[in-house]
Each structure stands twice: as structure tokens, then as C-alpha cells.
UniProtKB/TrEMBL annotation:
The lineage of its organism: Eukaryota, Metazoa, Spiralia, Lophotrochozoa, Annelida. The keyword Transcription regulation does not apply. Residues 46-146, 159-242 form the Cyclin-like domain. Belongs to the cyclin family. Cyclin C subfamily. This is DgyrCDS11689. GO terms for biological process: regulation of transcription by RNA polymerase II. It comes from Dimorphilus gyrociliatus.
Length: 290
């Protein structure tokens, strides 16, 4: 079943409806606006990307981790589990699912600590530390698996994109076209697009935009011959363009800290037998609204 998208859990269970997605997100949107919510998602997608680069995993592993992250918060509020803990958890699980191998526990936590202190220090109060440990990642992984009902296979647009480019191009310009479309696909993981549309549609949308950028007029006939709903393709393209428009006037280094501070902070779910100073404080993935 993993080789057939139409019979996969990705297709049958994890292509969501936009209205359902917004309804599940309603509690978070009472605290921040939709644009700020998207900025939060972009920030943590960037964090997963930085973590993946530090751990030297394949781009597909990063993409899978980002989808896992978005799936969790498609069904849960941002206050349910600290997104900063969910980032390494999603990457840890994705590396196993995509057969990259089990990530080194110590290197994973160390990479998170370095990212928080250096690359993404602008988002946090300084001095600050990544206070979670690998046991928190392991526990958070169970919550992630439970939420996804162990539906772990994720289909990405990269493979169909390569097939489409090969079919469309018969000359040497296919490499440039593929590169532009590939980058556009990478950008879609900063949006809700992977939760809403099949990978082949995302690939076609990225390719269509790449053809426009590269002024490849011959592609018009190729797209016209496809038995595909072009309205859906243009719908995806509009969402990608909306992302680029947001980026034009958005300086993450100046804005994200205030947005993150406006979100509810995780609090410890402490057993009644524990005293106020027992255990590790502020690290439990069990959270409730403060």
C-alpha cells in the first residue's frame, strides 16, 4: 500500500478540508490572527529545516518531519505540546520512517541547544537554553504516533515533479526548470498546502509556476493536454504566491519573538504526590492552559 498513493493513509485520512482545518485552529486564532499563526508555523518549519541540516539528513526527511509537525497541530492547539519539543520529535520519527536511521540522541539534543542559542536566538529571551532531554522526545513521540494513528507514510511532490519535467522537457533546459520547481515545492512546506492537496497536484502547480518564471511558452500545450483540474492547480499557486507576499514585508528576526510570547506557555502536569520542586519543571510535554 505504501507504493500506491490512492490507497494510502495519506490519501484516505490525511488530505484535510480547509474548513475543518480552520475549525480545529479556532482556539489558537482567538489569541493570534491567522497571519501570525502562519508566521509561527513558518518559524518552526525553519527550525526543523535548520535541525535537519545540523543532523545531515536528506531533504525528504525534513519534509516528512514538517508534515508530521503540521498534522499534529492540525488536530491540536499550539498550547497542547510545546512546538519547540515537537520539532526534534517530528524529525526523530521522520528519520526512522524514511529509513534514514535512528538519530543520535545526544547529537539531536545538542543540535537543538546550538540552534536555540545561536541561529534562532532572536526568537527567545536571552540567555535561554533548550531545556528538553531525549526522554521528553521519546514521550512526545508517543503522542505524535497516537494522533496520526500510526499513519506514517507521507508522499511528497518531488518524485512526480521529476517525472513531469522529464515528460515536458526534451532539451537541456530541464535542469533549470526542475531546480526552480523544486525550490517552490520546498516553500510549500511553510504553508497548509501539504495537508490539503495531493502531491501530484502540488508538483504540477510548482512546475506551472516554474514555467511562467522561465518563460517556457511551449509548456502551455503540455498543460492543456493534461486531464487535470487546472482550477485546483491555480488555487495551489495562489496560496504559494500569498506566502511570497507575506515574506516580502515580514522580518522574522524582529517579529517572531513577540508572537511566540503571546502564545500560552506550557505548564507541568504534576502527579499529586509530587511536591512543587520535585521532578523537572517546565519540560513535561503534558500541558494545559496557564
Amino acid at each position: 500500500m505504501a507504493g500506491n498513493f490512492w490507497r494510502s493513509s495519506h490519501c484516505q485520512q490525511w488530505l484535510l478540508d480547509k474548513q475543518d482545518l480552520m475549525r480545529e485552529r479556532n482556539n489558537d486564532l482567538k489569541l493570534i490572527c491567522e497571519e501570525d499563526y502562519q508566521k509561527v508555523m513558518i518559524f518552526f518549519a525553519n527550525f526543523i529545516q535548520g535541525l535537519g541540516e545540523a543532523m545531515k539528513v536528506r531533504q525528504q526527511v525534513v519534509a516528512t518531519a514538517t508534515v508530521f509537525f503540521r498534522r499534529f497541530y492540525a488536530k491540536n492547539s499550539l498550547k497542547s505540546i510545546d512546538p519547540l519539543l515537537m520539532c526534534p520529535t517530528a524529525l526523530y520519527l521522520a528519520a526512522k520512517v524514511d529509513e534514514f536511521g535512528v538519530l543520535s540522541n545526544s547529537r539531536l539534543i545538542q543540535a537543538c541547544q546550538v540552534l536555540v542559542k545561536n541561529k534562532f536566538c532572536y526568537a527567545f529571551n536571552q540567555p535561554t537554553e533548550f531545556s528538553y532531554r531525549i526522554n521528553h522526545v521519546w514521550e512526545c513521540e508517543f503522542y505524535l504516533l497516537e494522533l496520526m494513528d500510526c499513519c506514517l507514510i507521507v508522499f511528497h511532490p518531488y518524485r512526480p515533479l521529476q517525472q513531469y519535467v522529464t515528460d515536458l522537457c526534451s532539451s537541456t533546459d530541464d535542469a533549470q526548470l526542475l531546480q526552480v520547481a523544486w525550490r517552490i515545492i520546498n516553500d510549500t512546506y511553510r504553508t497548509d498546502i501539504p495537508l490539503l492537496y495531493p502531491p501530484y497536484m502540488i508538483a504540477l502547480s510548482a512546475l506551472h509556476m516554474a514555467c511562467v518564471i522561465n518563460q517556457k511558452e511551449a509548456a502551455k500545450n503540455w498543460f492543456a493536454e493534461l486531464a487535470i483540474d487546472m482550477e485546483k492547480i491555480m488555487e495551489i499557486s495562489k496560496q504559494i504566491i500569498s506566502l511570497y507576499e507575506l515574506w516580502k514585508n515580514y522580518d522574522e528576526t524582529k517579529e517572531i519573538k513577540a508572537i511566540l510570547q503571546s502564545l500560552p506557555k506550557p505548564v507541568v502536569s504534576r502527579p499529586p504526590s509530587q511536591g512543587p520542586n520535585d521532578g523537572i519543571q517546565n519540560n513535561d510535554p503534558h500541558v494545559s492552559q496557564a
